[in-house]
Amino acid sequence: MLDKTIIAVDAMGGDRSPKKILDGIEISLKENENLFFKIFGVKDKLEKFILNNSLIKNNSEVINVKDFILDHESPLSAAKKGNSTSMWQTINSLHNNDSHIALSAGNTGALLILSKMILDTIEGIDKPALAGLWPNKNGMNIVLDLGANIECNAKNLVDFSLMGSALYKSLFPENDPKVAILNVGSEEIKGHEIIKNAYKELKINNKYNFDFDGYIEGNHIMDGKANVIVTDGFTGNIAIKTAEGTANFITKNLKSSLNKLSMLLSYSSLKKFKNKLDPRKYNGAIFLGLQSPVVKSHGSTDSVGFAHSISVCNKIVKANLIEKIESNLITVDA
Amino acid sequence: MLDKTIIAVDAMGGDRSPKKILDGIEISLKENENLFFKIFGVKDKLEKFILNNSLIKNNSEVINVKDFILDHESPLSAAKKGNSTSMWQTINSLHNNDSHIALSAGNTGALLILSKMILDTIEGIDKPALAGLWPNKNGMNIVLDLGANIECNAKNLVDFSLMGSALYKSLFPENDPKVAILNVGSEEIKGHEIIKNAYKELKINNKYNFDFDGYIEGNHIMDGKANVIVTDGFTGNIAIKTAEGTANFITKNLKSSLNKLSMLLSYSSLKKFKNKLDPRKYNGAIFLGLQSPVVKSHGSTDSVGFAHSISVCNKIVKANLIEKIESNLITVDA
């Protein structure tokens, strides 16, 4: 048990929970024995799924809670429910050092606010940020901030670069992080003052232990040249949602353009295509900058997608992400 | 000639110019006799394409210029070339009321700066904005600003709503404009102060002659619920380029997933799909808010795409876009 990754899981958030959460846990345990789950939820609702499942029973502890946060509840109302909810207890398990990492498929706004309320910020980081995975030509990007901070200053963007490159190294140890700031052009004179100051800090003070690749435009995010894309939470949220909407629009149009015969004939090709772009593979946004990371699974994902976010949790713990962030900070101070 | 739409065309900008420009003009003239072109370019370079083309010869005037602006030249360097360039002369033709509208496939930054230098702003509009076409489920969106103004205040966003809805009415007279502000959530409390103030102005002061639909998130831009999407130039530029990058990424992946046989078998379906999403169909960004609109064709488009942007020019002139904007402004003042 000592070297197992202990994941605190909010079993009550997202569509078709708690069933999909427990199914996701089962998928993960079949792949990896070195996981242990602290499952926070209303016991009555969980029991029937666990009762005859020795794999989950032997590798988890169920902690009963009285209440849970609804998916469309306001963050304020969620906070008012206090420590009675599964989400609060899940995050609090990190505060008490009972778990290594926390995971929820519930209400994003509530998760961000409760995390900031309950957990300490890493010293030297001003604002925690929400980081996500985004496919590119050669593999995967880390993009942050996806919406935790609507307004950011230059120091925040530099912090995001440090945290994002540490996260990239944790998830993809075989590659080197290459940071770029999202902007409306690639020339130095483009953009507003906040971006220009972050650019100057990263470019001129060559003291960071990651590559800085300058500015990147929206149409090059998926080129694979940079792999850590840094932006404020307003722009990041709009960018990732626009990409999501565009992808949906195109695949729906593709479906309606193909007739049944050509669907049938192209079945294996289309399956390969779908598989490559399967959003479940990059499920899991990571709230970075707190004493321990809090991972947000997409609320609408299924058990396979939830299992992917468990795998993200495990990689982050095994790679000592927080130490990596702190070591990036030390490099800067020196 | 009196009721013909007179379009001033910069023949020197964009890839494969002036040939594609002249080919595009020819395509347009075959479809519509009521066009007349003032073609600004280096005569030596144009002559061989026009010499034996009576259709173009009879419906255009070629005005010789000494110089032109390179596609990757800085706006400052472009401005320094003064009135010797084809782009300057094209825009200046509006200033002199010699043409109804101006069109260029050249350097965007230069086009925005020269337009602002040469043309007057519509009284009541603080900042002109770059508007673009963006497909949605039911047809087409107008999205603005796409990058003319990196920073905007609430008044600018309200101006963009007035101008965008007037443009929508001009291009799609059979539909009603429905304005929405791009934001990170659809609830009233979301976003930063500038957005919230524009929202209040449009929502509470119910004096505008277009529907205001509140906030829209990035993943709903293509849903077709709203059709005039308003945002600052930084966010708009990132959003449209991110959509472009995502679309390219997906279609490239689709191509590489399909083997030759299934390509062949799905040929007509894929052609239908490609045709529906053909970017040439929404070629043409419109710089709005000046005494007359200046239209920017994509530099990399071909003659068919350029002909589409000529059609956009014609619709704008025929619909009296500037009058529509002014009438929206009058509604507000009243």
> What name does CATH use for the topology of the largest domain in chain A?
Isopropylmalate Dehydrogenase
| Spans where pLDDT lies below 50 across 5 or more residues of chain A | none
Look at the helices and sheets of chain A and give the structural class.
alpha/beta
DSSP strand tally of chain A: 11
Radius of gyration of chain A: 20 Å
Q: Biggest sheet of chain A, in brief?
A: 11 strands, mixed
Residue share in β-strands of chain A: 15-25%
Distance between the termini of chain A: 38 Å
The general outline of chain A is: globular
**Oligomerization:** homodimer
Supply the number of structural domains of chain A: 2
- In CATH, the homologous superfamily of the largest domain in chain A goes by the name Isopropylmalate Dehydrogenase
> In the CATH classification, which architecture of the largest domain in chain A applies?
3-Layer(aba) Sandwich
Largest interface, Cβ cutoff 8 Å: A-B, 51 and 51 residues
Top CATH class of the largest domain in chain A: Alpha Beta
Mean pLDDT, all residues of chain A: 91
How would you spell out the order of helices and strands of chain A?
EHEHHEHHEHEEHEHEEHHHEEHH
Number of helices of chain A: 13
Q: Strands across the major sheet of chain A, in which order?
A: 3-2-1-4-11-10-5-6-9-7-8
Q: Tell me roughly what share of residues is in helical segments of chain A.
A: 40-55%
